[in-house]
Specification:
- With about 425 residues, the protein is mainly alpha-helical.
- The chain has 21 helices and no strands.
- The protein has one domain: Proton glutamate symport protein, CATH 1.10.3860.
- Helix 3 packs parallel to helix 8.
Length: about 425
């Protein structure tokens, strides 16, 4: 119930934050008074940021370990997993490059001219000690307890990878108790994340009120610019996904597009990939994907193939850097891309997971964490688009991996040619009409 009301509550928080921020900005009398008023709103936003941070370490560990341990052991699963991961990695790189390219082209944060805290601004431009060697060395943890205590997300991911593969090995030997415990831990963390996100309307209200108190309503123009340019990027990404899908599936990719209309619309309206999962699985079965493939690749994709989220994260981080007039070199942006490739994995099924990833990534590159509050104020509108895109990307990925499997009597495999794909479309269409 809380989830269904969250979009409306966030919208109300945005509207109220704009109204209160405008009033405070208008009646503050001076810039100093406006900053003083905004500092009280910042207390609320600081608490919300702390709550987001507290869930990062256990959430990454539980979801990533659980995803790896669920891969199975047979040759078929290994082959399917390898093909799926190849697609996921390629799609992630493309999504990040599109997002990073467009945000550098459009420069949506260039006009904000925000000022970070003095120490943060100094750290942001002091990149003398930031080298590839130091970055790679820092990835590997000395202690998992230390990594979790300090929220060192990459170090947690490295440990989780080792733990997950080791757990998969003992799971094949019949030892499943730890696997079940990890799965239960993931469920608990999902619930805690829901609790934290219940405070999102309050955090959004405070973020909007604080920003507009100091900056005025002119800030909304930049928000509208960001949303519009992000949706342009989403449409471009959809075009790339369907174009590549056409290369593998032929004309039947358009049939797939029709079949997934309902889950995509559901994901867009609720901003929840989980709500679209059953309908997506059903649509893939109607399309002809073998259940043994779709039941493995689709859940795996929910953890490792978040195309819309990847593009959003690139947009968000570079936007924050631009808003604070922090110039990121090409090398730094490539390192951010690499970091997002790793930190975003295993975060599906979590409300506002991309916000958590952005929150974890900002301090790695000494970017102002307060910049997250600029994004979270409009995150609902961005979340709707990226969630729908995640569903589209996972559906196409599952269909392509299914088509690449050797024939085992399934109808989907022979449809590699455009003519057979058209035949599949005529068979699947009545199912859509009757749905």
């Amino acid at each position: 119930m809380k989830k269904s009301h969250l979009p409306r509550r966030i919208a109300a928080g945005i509207a109220l934050g704009v109204l209160v921020g405008w009033a405070c900005h208008h009646f503050a009398g001076s810039e100093q008074n406006a900053k003083e008023i905004a500092s009280y709103f910042s207390m609320i936003t600081d608490i919300f940021l702390r709550m987001i941070k507290m869930i990062i370490a256990p959430l990454v560990f539980a979801t990533l370990v659980g995803g790896i341990a669920s891969m199975g052991s047979s040759k078929s699963v290994g082959r399917i997993g390898a093909r799926a991961m190849l697609w996921f990695v390629t799609a992630s790189v493309v999504s990040l490059l599109i997002g990073m390219g467009l945000v550098n082209l459009f420069q949506p944060g260039a006009g904000l001219n925000l000022v970070a805290a003095p120490h943060a601004a100094t750290a942001a431009v002091d990149t003398g000690g930031f080298t590839v060697k130091a970055f790679i060395s820092h990835v590997f943890p000395r202690s998992i307890a230390e990594a979790m205590a300090n929220n060192e997300i990459l170090q947690i991911v490295v440990f989780s990878l080792f733990f997950g593969f080791a757990l998969a090995a003992v799971k094949r030997a019949g030892f499943t108790r730890i696997t079940e415990t990890v799965d239960e831990l993931a469920k608990v963390m999902f619930r805690i994340t829901d609790y934290v996100m219940a405070f999102a309307p309050l955090g959004v209200f405070a973020a909007m009120a604080s920003a507009i108190t100091t900056q005025g309503l002119g800030l909304l123009v930049d928000y509208g610019k960001l949303v519009g340019e992000f949706y342009i990027g989403i449409l471009l990404l959809w075009g790339v996904l369907f174009a590549v899908g056409y290369g593998f599936l032929g004309r039947s990719v358009f049939t797939l597009g029709k079949l997934i209309r309902e889950p995509v619309l559901l994901a867009f309206s609720t901003a929840s990939s989980e709500s679209a999962y059953p309908k997506t699985m059903e649509a893939l079965e109607q399309f002809g994907s073998p259940k043994k493939v779709s039941s493995f690749v689709l859940p795996l994709g929910y953890s490792f193939n978040l195309d819309g989220s990847m593009m959003y994260q690139a947009f968000a981080i570079i936007f924050i850097a631009q808003a604070y007039n922090i110039d990121l070199s090409f090398t730094q942006q490539l390192l951010i891309l690499l970091t997002l490739m790793i930190t975003s994995k295993g975060m599906a099924g979590v409300a506002r997971a991309s916000v958590v990833v952005v929150a974890a990534t900002l301090p790695m590159f000494n970017l102002p964490e307060a910049g997250l509050l600029l994004i979270i104020g409009i995150d609902q509108f961005l979340d709707m688009a990226r969630t729908a895109t995640n569903v589209v990307g996972n559906s196409i990925a599952t269909a392509v991996v299914s088509r690449s499997e050797p024939e085992e009597g399934g109808e989907a495999h022979p449809a590699r040619s455009a003519s057979v794909g058209t035949h599949a479309a005529t068979q699947a269409e009545p199912t859509v009409q009757g749905a």
